[in-house]
Automatic annotation (TrEMBL):
It comes from Marinilabilia rubra. PANTHER family: 5-METHYLCYTOSINE-SPECIFIC RESTRICTION ENZYME B (PTHR37291), TYPE IV METHYL-DIRECTED RESTRICTION ENZYME ECOKMCRB SUBUNIT (PTHR37291:SF1). This is ATPase. GO terms for molecular function: ATP binding; ATP hydrolysis activity. Residues 300-375 form the ATPase dynein-related AAA domain. Gene3D superfamilies: P-loop containing nucleotide triphosphate hydrolases. It holds the Pfam family AAA_5.
Length: 475
């Protein structure tokens, strides 16, 4: 169904006389048990004494329609298979991120580390699968870029704690210089995540109201939010609510349920004579927030910060005391800078961090053990199968030739690879070869692939007769 929805415009253009005959688009978006949708068209048949008959021209039309359907049918199943592959690839990474809260994608250049980070961020934030169809994925990535729950930054050697966490800013004020402490990227983003409203659901009422009722019964008389109303009794399907002891009336559970649903749907307060119902509903929401039966931190909207080239900065210096906060989410750590009389900083559980790291870059420092322990590392390696999806045999052949500089056919390190390096850390990634057009592939070879390989020779990654083999590469 998801594959059909993502290709819907294209399919409707191919089958212009087709429409949803049974069901609805809404049912496609949110399938229900024992219901189905039929996308097609209606033709007239006749009932005779011999049974059902169809005119010859309509029968021909029916056969042609079956032929026309084959290509869209093929496209839907190809995309479906891609989506299944992506899901199999991304699901373990998402589970790891949910558990650890911060991960680093590591691998050689061109393996799609940032690409993958954006895909994971999209699925985490929107709880929807990234499309395997390029145009649809482009729309999804635009949606991601426009989301307040997503941020992408890039580290560099000069990046500091004052750029990332909290620092001092100087401003002119009436001819004098004024110094103020300001929160930076991470703290601002963390504060947005902390302020995020809890996601309540309709099902919570039926699931948790019995526990709420038990708590009320154990604490009669029970004061509501504003101290004006007090529950002094509990009936079979109502509360006896008193107004400062002067008046009371029965507030029925069904009325509380209706009011709760209106509140979580962001409808305006009922007002009038329904303040008691509203206060009972708000007290129930407060109960949900503080109940040990449900983890509402998990029901907050998720925020994802992607840090590209995370190892290019001096991480211990940039993170400072937040090295502790990464592991102990929700706990305060003390910043070196005070802001508004407070030094505390906290990273909430609904903030996720994805870093990317180029394992071939020797110009940057290694990540020390203290920081490494706070992150989980995921290898993003070159994949020939991804190049094969482009359908360009020349691209596949070129990838295999370049790979021979790093590994032999038997999988052992090539003679042209320095023993100081592992092939997985330096071999060129598939994105350098993702070209369907042969001329474009030649341009990439001359201006991207060969210069990078020559840089490898200069840095001592490739040795012996590597330069001769590099210059012999062709499309």
């Amino acid at each position: 169904m998801q594959a059909f929805l993502q290709l819907e415009d294209k399919i409707r253009n191919q089958l212009k006389d087709y429409e949803i005959i049974i069901g609805s688009r809404q049912l496609l978006e949110k399938p229900e048990f024992d219901k189905f949708c039929l996308f097609g068209k209606i033709i007239n048949i006749e009932m005779t004494s011999e049974g059902f008959t169809i005119k010859d021209e309509l029968f021909e039309e029916l056969l042609n329609d079956c032929k026309r359907q084959f290509e869209p049918y093929q496209q839907i199943f190809e995309l479906r298979n891609k989506m299944i592959e992506l899901n199999d690839k991304y699901e373990p990474i998402k589970k790891l991120l949910e558990y650890k809260k911060q991960i680093i994608f590591q691998g050689p250049p061109g393996t799609g580390k940032t690409y993958t980070a954006k895909d994971i961020a999209y699925e985490i934030i929107f709880d929807r699968q990234v499309s395997g169809e390029p145009m649809e994925r482009k729309k999804q990535m635009e949606e991601l870029q426009n989301s307040d729950q997503f941020k992408l930054i890039q580290f560099h050697p000069a990046y500091s704690y004052e750029d990332f966490v909290r620092g001092i800013s100087a401003r002119e004020n009436n001819g004098s210089i004024e110094y103020n402490t300001e929160d930076r990227v991470l703290v601002k983003f963390a504060q947005d995540a902390i302020k995020e409203k809890v996601i309540y659901s309709y099902d919570d009422y039926d699931k948790f109201f019995p526990s709420f009722l038990k708590m009320i019964k154990e604490n009669i008389p029970y004061e509501l939010n504003n101290s004006k109303y007090t529950i002094k009794g509990v009936g079979s399907n109502f509360f006896d609510v008193h107004d400062n002891g002067k008046h009371f009336r029965k507030v029925r559970f069904e009325a509380i349920k209706s009011t709760y649903r209106e509140l979580i749907s962001c409808q305006p307060p009922l007002g009038g004579g329904y303040y008691m119902e509203e206060d009972c509903s708000k007290k129930f929401m407060f109960f949900l927030n503080n109940s040990t039966e449900i983890d509402y931190e998990k029901k907050k909207q998720k925020y994802v910060l992607v840090i590209d080239e995370i190892n290019r900065a001096n991480l211990p210096s940039v993170l400072g005391e937040l090295i502790y906060a990464l592991e102990y989410r929700g706990e305060f750590v003390e910043s070196m800078y005070e802001k508004d009389g407070v030094r505390n900083i906290v990273l909430p559980p609904n903030l996720y961090i994805i870093g990317t790291m180029n394992t071939a870059d020797r110009s940057v420092g290694h990540i020390d053990y203290a920081i490494r322990r706070r992150f989980s590392f995921v290898d993003i390696l070159p994949e020939l199968s991804i190049i094969q999806t482009c359908g360009c045999e020349k691209a596949e052949e070129l990838f295999k030739e370049v790979a021979k500089l790093f590994v032999k056919d038997n999988g052992r390190p090539a003679d042209t690879l320095s023993p100081e390096f592992q092939a997985d850390n330096v071999m060129l990634g598939h994105s350098y070869f993702m070209e369907q057009d042969e001329e474009n592939l030649k341009v990439r070879l001359v201006y991207e692939i060969i210069p990078l390989l020559m840089e490898y020779v200069k840095d001592g990654i490739l040795i012996n007769d590597a330069e001769t083999k590099i210059q012999a590469l062709s499309v």
